[in-house]
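Entry type: protein chain
Record version: 2
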Amino acid sequence: MPSFILFPLTFVCGTLVFCLHVEWRRSWRILAIPAFVIVCGLIYDPLTIWADSVENVSSLLVRALYYICCSVMFVAILRCCTRLTWLESLVTVVAGYAVQHLAVDVYALIDDTGWAQRNPDGPLERFMTKFLGVFIIVYALTYACIGRRRVVDDGKIRNRLVWVLVCAGILLFVITFSMLVVEDRSLETRLVGHIYDAICVALMLAVLMLVAANDRLYGDLAALRQTEQLARQHYEIARENIDLINIRCHDIRKSISRMADNRADTTTGDLLRQVEGNIRIYDSIFHTGNEYLDVLLTEKGLYCSGNAITFTCVADGRRLGFMDDTDVFELFSNILDNAIESAARMQEPGKRVVNLGVEANGGLLVIRSENYYPDTDVPKFSDGMPVTTKTDHRQHGFGTRSIAWQARKYNGEASFQASDGVYTVTVVVPIP
């Protein structure tokens, strides 16, 4: 492989290590990536020859400017070819450049120490003497450790300016440190410099990922808190509506009963009693022993009745006394909302069913929900958690995460399973 193509190619490959979760645009614009590799490669050799012919300071500035321009250019290309935002593209490119630089440090250490030359006939040594062999190992380890996760989520970033400054600082350090401290030094200085450089770059990558994870957790927590507040408001509204419905229906039923008793016409009396029987549906509220659960189950039961969904529930709400009332309402609301939404998509009337059970078993509270799901909409899972079927993943999927979060809040676990057309949610929490 021509030497001039190595830097842009390894740079691009290092960035692609972090692009597992990236959504690419299906268009001709993706050709900009190989074009970038070729153009940057063609410029590299002439620029290096010219930089070596000028003063040392000017040479450093020219080469640093070249690397910075390549990075900025690739940020624009990644933004154009993917669905990433500008900030997400910047962070991804900086992380890719850092990994590429880390691989260069590892190769330089192997080359300067002569480790591979001590047993040149060994298969590992022969592989490590190859430039690309070192990069493959470093990239594979990086992917296994951090590349499989999303680098940063623009929708959950708390301070964009800080991220831009951090990325600029990392990029400048990676570009200038080797040129200022390591190049054209003695062997001992180069070895120490490469080791220090590799450690610093690895720590920068770790900090970058930790800060990104912290921002994601902060964003998820803010969304969960908002969901909890909405659940509290939802409960108050639902309780008022159900109380109002029951008062009105109770009065109507009594009025119809008196009318039927005072009518001599048997047909009219039977008709009125039939109407009275229909109204009794609204007076059939749940009595599980937990007020918050009763309100929610009654509301969901009325919705299911109006949408031809069979809703069955066997629940001992008294066992929920150790949980906060708002947590009870939010937990069961998320479980039932997902189940009812899935059941409503079923075309077969016999499969428009939602089953819910709450029981105590051996000191454990077991909550179990079951519903059918369409064959065309089989749930997908990632790390044991279902992936939202909505197109906007940033604004959806908090329901299942909220279920798992609340289970862990009470030292329990939530599991999700899809098998034989039945979707099952099981929450197990120890009873204090």
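Comment: Residues 391-396 have pLDDT under 50 and may be disordered.
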